[in-house]
Amino acid sequence: MTRFDAADPSDRPALFAEAVLAHRKRGSPFLTAEVDPDDVPDAGGADESATVPWVQFADETFNLDCTDAELDRLKALLDEFPEFRIEQIERPEDAEGANVRITARADASRLGQFMDRALQATYDLDDDYRAWVTQV
């Protein structure tokens, strides 16, 4: 990979697809993408409990944390990606939300598209949000 961030709606899916390919080529345990904190409502602002959205991918599975409202948006998004399925939802007692695992058997391009849409739709981000691939 030669770049690690993108903010343009047409560039982010390509960035994520490149990250998937690099992850597979390197045989790394997982890849992680995070939203730039400056693009997250309340992250680092008045609401100290706001977290920076992230998504991980490994072994044909996406992993992300979300609140109940975010989970509803994620479930609605899956209508656009019928080849992807929620495999597991865990609700730890000490957490306010859920950890979601989604099985995703697709090529790198389709995985990149999903990663972008999942971040944007689930966390209600603007079209020009910046994402960083933080681990490959």
List the helices and strands and how they pair.
Blueprint: E1 5-6, H1 12-26, E2 31-35, E3 54-58, E4 61-66, H2 68-77, E5 84-90, E6 98-104, H3 108-122, E7 131-135
Antiparallel strand pairs: 1-7, 2-3, 2-7, 3-4, 4-6, 5-6
Verbal overview:
The protein is α+β, with helices and mostly antiparallel strands and 136 residues long. Helices cover 29% and strands 27% of the residues. The protein is built from three helices and seven strands; from the N terminus they run βαβββαββαβ. It has a seven-stranded antiparallel sheet with strand order 1-7-2-3-4-6-5. A hairpin with a 7-residue loop joins strand 5 (84-90) and strand 6. Helix 1 (12-26) packs across helix 3 (108-122) and helix 2 (68-77) packs antiparallel against helix 3. The model has no long low-confidence stretch (mean pLDDT 92).
